[in-house]
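Researcher: Next sequence.
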Amino acid sequence: MVASGLVTMLRRLSALVRDTLALAWRAGRADTAVMLAATLAGEICTTFGVLATTDVLEELFSAAPTPDRLRQALPSLASVVVATVLRGSFRAAGEWARARLEPLVTQAVNLQIVALTTRVEPAAFDDPEFHDQVQRTSEASERGAAMLLWAVMATITGLCGLLALSGALGVLHPALLPPILLATVPGTWATVRGARVGYQVTAGIAAARRRQETLQKLMTERGPAAEIRSYGMRPYLLGEFRRISRWIVGFELRAVRRQQLAEILGGTLGGAATGLVYLALGVLLWTGQVPLAVAGTAALAVQRATGATRDLLNGVSEAYEAGLYFADYRDFLTRAAARVPVLGGTAPPDDLDRISVRDVTFTYPGGDEPALRGVSVDVAPGQVVALVGENGSGKTTLAKLITGLYVPDSGTISWGGVGVEEIDREALRRHVAVIAQNFTCWPFTAGHNVTLGGDRDPGAALAASGADEVVRRLPYGLDTLLDPSYRGGTELSGGQRQRIAVARGLYRDARLLVCDEPTASLDARAEHAIFESIRRHAVQRTVVMITHRLAGVRWADQIYVLGRGRVVESGTHEELMRLGGVYAGMYALQARAYAPAPPVRGGRDGIP
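Model: Next structure:
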């Protein structure tokens, strides 16, 4: 679209106007109708006003005495005044309707973006291209929607005004019409070229701008502040920020030079074309083809046509640039819709916690190596199944596939004998609870952080997780806002946040509970309490446990040991210990860390 020529862009401009008006119509029908009708009526009044001016001038230039001329011109003068007043009133009504529509259109665009973004498959967020597209689309939502509506209306207003005045000039003398239309071409070319360069800048610096914003966020928010100072990172971060900023500014300055050259050339040619209009008018007057009154009206019409052309070009410029963002927005909607997982129509089976994973392989977007390679796992109803292994072995990835967040590249996953691709996954997820290691502490109250919109009392989940102790220490209990960046907000420690996350998972009361390092931020006493709580809840549900701390999985019904994306061992704790393989070695290594230290031998008093 950026590489398209002027004719192609003007052709696409009509489609852009149509799509924008359709969006505005959905956002507010009455306001859209008022805006269009008032704009059209205002420009019709312009035509009547210009033509009535001819009658006024003819009366004033007649041979009658001056008082008689004025009396005879009064009806025409009244027509001019009425047309001018109506034109101003209609334009004000159109602006009022547009001002009402802007927030409605912006809200509609933003709502559609977030509604679709929250539906795409999680794998999309592992794709850098998707992030860049979200960046451009977010920019379109911030500046594109309102700017687009304004630009489209400015284009329509300018075009209607130019056509009305061109029609008036055609009535006055047909020879004046071609020059006035020709005068719009240079400015249109310069405007479209400048807008194209502006969009190329935005698209070209999208990734760098996102990097710059990330660094700025890190340097200005509370979370990283202590680490920046502790490690003396300020010079390094500032250096990176300056380097990226210099690159962005250099890119923009080169674009400004191209835009200015286009504007200078377009302005020069446009001025010359407007001079041709006045030259044609002078020739017609010199040769007696138009009377003086008509020539005066034509001069006024040319002046107004120049203003209408200026409005049209400004509208085209803004509409073209906003249209490129709008094209990003529409392209994002298309691509994001393609990344929304297809939901099967089958209801979740009764024994949905009987899960079978067969020969599954999965690679993250942009990844060079598969995260999982031919993995097979079985989970029976009521079982506690543990996934253990070193970092990067594929435990969390396997859990994401089991819960339907990711789709395997090959292999099958079934719930109760039904393939996961056939099941309504949104209905399926209502039966799954996840206690994640990297959980989100939402900027909501403590109560809403546990219930996440649920309406049941969270007391049982708080007691089971030990989070009731956390809530009791908060200044407003469950009504305490868990975000210190807002007034009255409170920040929790890592362990306190972990307890809230565990309470969130237990509150769901789901058939399947997935625990991904649920005690990562807890001390030994709290860890023991959480594991005991999960064991008690395991009696009523199926549990998939991911943890590095093997003491907490001895009681699991089945343990799968993963290594480099493969299942290398499986069995009960006793079976794996007798096997003497990877699991036994890991368990013995952790056990030695808790064994009494041997006496230190050395010099006097045991000092080496």
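Model: The first helix runs from residue 6 to 27. The two ends are 77 Å apart (CA to CA).
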